[in-house]
Amino acid sequence: MHGDADIAAIGALVADRGRARILLALGDGRALPATVLADEAGVAASTASAHLSRLVKGGLLTVERQGRHRYFRLAGPEVGELIESLARISPPAPVRSLKQGSKAHAVRFARTCYDHLAGMLGTKLMDALLERNVLTGGDGVFDPGCGGADRLAAPGFDVDYRLTPAGVRDLEAFGIDFDSLAPRRPVVRYCVDWSEQRHHLAGSLGAAIAERMIELGWVRRAERSRALHVSDSGYVGLREQFGIELSPR
Amino acid sequence: MHGDADIAAIGALVADRGRARILLALGDGRALPATVLADEAGVAASTASAHLSRLVKGGLLTVERQGRHRYFRLAGPEVGELIESLARISPPAPVRSLKQGSKAHAVRFARTCYDHLAGMLGTKLMDALLERNVLTGGDGVFDPGCGGADRLAAPGFDVDYRLTPAGVRDLEAFGIDFDSLAPRRPVVRYCVDWSEQRHHLAGSLGAAIAERMIELGWVRRAERSRALHVSDSGYVGLREQFGIELSPR
DNA sequence: GGGATATTTCGTTCCCGGGCGAAACGTGCA
DNA sequence: TGCACGTTTCGCCCGGGAACGAAATATCCC
Questions:
Q1: Chain A residues within an 8 Å CB radius of B16
Q2: Who's near B70: CB < 8 A, 6+ residues apart?
């Protein structure tokens, strides 16, 4: 069936801890810049650079330049499947399915996407912001890739989600300081959420809201994953402030 | 989803050329002894031994002792899927699908299974031998594993395919010298053919028939795979001697 | 028991590849 | 233009592991 496929070459690409972490970080199809991946892999930028170029040359990743950034993402769904296959075997077995299952659930429930909120929490927040007219627009255009400022901008990513004057007031009341938002970064962007297949809020505003929620103790980062844990006060706050009903568990 | 799976460890197992060849050789679920795998991988027996123990310790293979042999096989279907995933990506892409396709076709058409005939040729030969009463029996019992002398014997593998007196005469006429058959090996065994899902003939008789066909120039081993090429005289011979109709291409 | 064969262990050699920091590019922003 | 930042290239060090042959071990057959 597979005549003389050079499996070993692919294996060698995955065989390194740093590269493996990079692949896992990109596992959900996101596109991330080299610096972030270096951090994710826990190696120096120069080391990550070498890893990334090997992965690209090996056909596992693709790059797209965006100004002085280079965004990397999985070359295709087959690569994602490969990663799945590997992950399925990597612990002696998916024996710990109970723990792993709850972990997977947690990630889908609420997580960070780079520096903003994603998962069910992220999309419900997006809904709430639109419903309460904090944001308007976003009708129709759907970007299959990801349009966050921290993701690779695909053509036409600039769906017109706009902040309303009333929205600015609401968010300031919530504790967002618009004057101190990262200046060199678009305020409102969106991401396509892989677990929800809908948009969530990115951009400097998205990051600021996530930061504020952490500051308020509404959510807390998990130790070893991108999952977020929502506290009791978080459930209350989300309901009262944004009308978001999240069912825990 | 996959929290902290140690993907790199699995990758490292596949990252070596020798181990990759071993995995590919076992890719169809066969169980093979260490010596054969060493040959398949093109390394010394000692080297292969080290590889095999790493693969077993890593959970990709399982071993079963059978006398002084140790038969290795993939630890489970997930491992097979992993290999598939890898093979799907390994050449820059399945771009050379034309060549690869014909190669895959050739392997299904006719190949060696260790030392005897498999693929469509192997199963048609088995049919012919039963139809012409060279062999009798084999009714019902179906071994999901493989019961050849050169494969791992699973419980109940000894389905009663028996050689008939008339069959002995026929085969002697064909050029099989029963006196010189490997004495320490069962004469008639069978394998479950993975590409045809039916039995083909193994054992010392299966090996002798394969050898004789090669000797007669009916079939020729391919360079880089287990595929067999059937010659023009081979098609004629198979038809006249065994009534086997193989459509080339 | 003795000879043959399958497999593993041991000891040695050798090379690939990962890690880092410093410095060189290249691009964007002021 | 000049500074800042993201990324890559370069040079160096170092460890792991893959290879082989020879010898040890285990098992089978006669």
A1: 8, 11
A2: B33, B34, B52, B63, B64
